[in-house]
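Students often ask why we bother encoding 3D structure as a string. The short answer is that it lets us treat folding as translation between two languages. Here is a chain of 250 residues written in the first language.
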Amino acid sequence: MCGLIYSLFQSVIERILTKKDELKSWQIIRYLLLPVVYLIRLILIQYLISIFVFHFFTRIIIKNMITIIPNDIQQQALEHYLAVRQNTTENVPVTILHIDDQYSFMAQGTGADKPDNLWVFGIGAGKTATSYFYHNPPTPGEVENAIMVVEDEVMPLHKLLIPNSQLYSLDETVREIALLAAFKDSDQGMILTRTDMELVFNRLAAIITGRPASSDVLPADNSFASTLLILREVMHHLGFMEITILPLRE
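And here it is in the second language, the structure alphabet:
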């Protein structure tokens, strides 16, 4: 594009020089403005095309989410949200992550009675393991494929989530990950930082790439690996530095 603008500007200068005695000052100014107008038009067209492409592919990705949410999942999300709200300050934004066997959801809000938003994903501990892990432990290639799928599911939420929200979970499987890491205790529950979660994932990666599974205490089932993978992608791509795991409900 720069070469095209340069050529156009050069041709305009040559035309002005050849007809300088015939052209009036306003005509010279108009000729000089032609490359600028052309450049602005090109930039505007490219900007509009980039916006269209972004929204087009974002809509395709969001279509992978479960857009019609079953009543039982809505009720489950409400129960998780209310349980978290009992331990948090009202009007402070909270985000709840739940990783089920066949699906996962994230609920977010600031109110005391119900979440403002609920997103359900077609990824889960069992579903992801069954769909992408054909070996135990899974191969590096299988893990990479699963990571790409999970990324496509969660990344569109990056611009939809309320900023500066704290991440919570009531999941026993997430608690299990925290117990395998250097978690911190708080008045609310166990706090697992993204750094400590990543250390657990690195231990899993070492087993996947050849270290004997007996050298670590990580669970050997692939559903644990998929749960850890989903948690990792959520924390990394949605910008959560830590997750608080509340005590199990009775």
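Translate back mentally: The beta strands are 94-99, 104-109, 117-121, 166-169, 184-185, 190-193, 242-245. Keep this in mind for the problem set.
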